[in-house]
Write a structure and sequence with these properties.
With 367 residues, this protein is α/β, with parallel strands linked by helices. The protein is built from 16 helices and seven strands.
């Protein structure tokens, strides 16, 4: 197999103007954002972002580096991602969002990965090192750029017979697959999965099965490490987190209390072990992106964009893992949208890593 080597990007640093500030808050009117992730980034339906941003009076320009199951190191080292690295180093982007994968370790030096990708010299493929590498590329082109860690959600344990697993690949059997998954969704204890303490000793011992990566504690620890490497960015409010996992926790608690119509628990958001359904689940994550990136309440967003099932299947929107993972649509109602928007704003304004003040933007919004 072709050897992949570390690609040295030597582009001239180009200063870019900071994004224009909105008159009614401290967030920008226009933002150019580059995403680095996998299907869980795709689950936000990034191709919807420009339209939903426009619905709130914001210009939301996005591009992405995305691969099925990709870890952060793949965006940094693989030749197929070279154009994306060059793009953020080119000075035209205001911000990047890097999806926390939770593996390999924060710092892990290897000569090869999976027996398929080989390096010419010992190379750090750890999440911390590679996230920091992407941030440095952004700063080459835009010294005032912002960087965000996308903190997603834990997977749900699913064990079904092989013959039933095949149904997840057949779009015509979405309803049958939904029925098979129902007991797993109802039994899922999201809070227990998300709040497991992070095991730093397991991290240092390179034992990924013990260190509990897809958790709040893991992502907070990663943020703390990034703060040490980029203290000026942190102090300036240009290094932050998009806390989707914490939003899911808050929605889960409200749903279990009977306060989210049509949702009994966050397990209802899941299509399979990790991907989420079209409709309310995908809107929830996107609205969290918006609230943090634009430092604005999500209440002005037109959530109906995520209610239109036909748009998910349009050619520009067929993202990796998107088509077969849409599942059975979970409709958004005005009441559910209001509750989710309120929850998002509460979470992002209380989270220690978002830099979003509670009174930093306008209220109100679409019914």
């Amino acid at each position: 197999m072709k050897r992949h080597t570390v690609v040295a990007i030597a582009l001239a640093a180009l200063l870019t103007a900071a994004p224009a500030r909105a008159a009614d808050g401290d967030g920008p009117d226009r933002l150019r954002v580059y995403y680095f992730g996998n299907s869980l980034t795709g689950n936000t339906m990034p191709t919807f972002h420009p339209a939903i941003g426009k619905s709130a009076g914001r210009e939301w320009v996005m591009e992405r580096s995305q691969g099925a199951g990709w870890q952060v190191w793949q965006h940094v080292y693989l030749d197929s991602a070279k154009r994306h690295r060059e793009a953020i180093a080119g000075g035209e982007w205001d911000a990047i969002v890097v999806q926390a994968f939770g593996g390999p370790a924060f710092n892990e030096v290897v000569n090869q990965m999976w027996g398929k990708v080989h390096f010419d010299q010992p190379t750090d493929v750890g999440d911390l090192h590679c996230t920091a590498a992407l941030i440095r590329l952004l700063l080459k082109g835009n010294p005032d750029g912002r960087a965000y860690l996308y903190s997603d959600w834990p997977g749900m344990a699913v064990k079904v017979p092989k013959e039933q697993q095949e149904l997840s690949k057949d779009l015509k059997d979405a309803d049958r697959w939904h029925a098979i998954m129902e007991p797993f969704r109802k039994a899922f204890d999201y809070e227990a999965a998300w709040l497991v303490p992070y095991d730093r000793k397991a991290e240092e011992a390179k034992k990924p099965w013990l260190r509990n990566n897809a958790t709040r504690a893991h992502d907070h620890q990663l943020m703390e490490e990034l703060k040490k490497q980029f203290p000026a960015m942190w102090k300036a409010g240009r290094l932050g987190m998009i806390p989707a996992g914490d939003v899911f926790l808050a929605v889960d608690r409200k749903a279990r209390a009977g306060k989210v119509p049509g949702v009994e628990g966050i397990g209802d958001f899941y299509t399979n072990g990790v991907h989420i359904r079209s409709g309310l689940p995908r809107y929830t994550v996107t609205a969290t992106f918006y609230a943090v990136l634009f430092r604005d309440r999500p209440h002005n967003l037109d959530w109906k964009i995520y209610n239109d099932q036909s748009t998910y299947m349009n050619k520009p929107n067929r993202w990796i893992c998107c088509e077969k993972d849409l599942g059975v649509h979970l409709p958004i109602t005005p009441e559910a949208a209001r509750i989710v928007n309120d929850t998002i704003w509460d979470v992002v304004t209380m989270n220690p890593y978002t830099h979003v003040p509670a009174d930093g933007a306008t209220s109100g919004g679409n019914p």
